[in-house]
Each structure stands twice: as structure tokens, then as C-alpha cells.
Automatic annotation (TrEMBL):
Pfam families noted in UniProt: LysM
Name of this protein: LysM domain-containing protein
Database matches in CDD domains: LysM (cd00118)
Domain named LysM: residues: 26-68
InterPro entries, per database record: LysM (IPR018392), LysM_dom_sf (IPR036779)
Amino acid sequence: MVLEISLTDEPVRGNQLLDRPCDEIYVVGEGETLHTISDKCGDPYIVEQNPHIHDPDDVFPGLVIKITASKPRKLVG
């Protein structure tokens, strides 16, 4: 039996360390849109998960949103 222990808070699958591209709580930066954040973070459902966003076109720096990345990226193979 092999026990795998991660020294980071990143998820591990098998012997692969997976990277979450964005934290679950995300602060919008200058020039970002929901589309660019969705692409960067792998979350196509940002609007649905953030009911405080009444107008998806009214996104501004400092806005705090919830992110649920759908596809973690592999760091180590």
C-alpha cells in the first residue's frame, strides 16, 4: 500500500499534482471581463454562481466573484 501525502494545498490525483488556475474567491483586475476570467479560470458558469452580478457587462476592478474551475491543469506528469 502506498500513501501519498501532498505538502501543498493543491489537489493530487495519482502521482500528478494538479493546479487550480484561480482561487475560489477571485478579485477582478484592470481590463478583465467575465469572458477573459472564464477562459483563464476554466469556469463557464461565473454569472450563475454570482447572483450579485446583475449585468455581466458591468464588471469592474475590485469586484469579488466566486470561481469554480471545471478543469484543473496538470503540473507534474
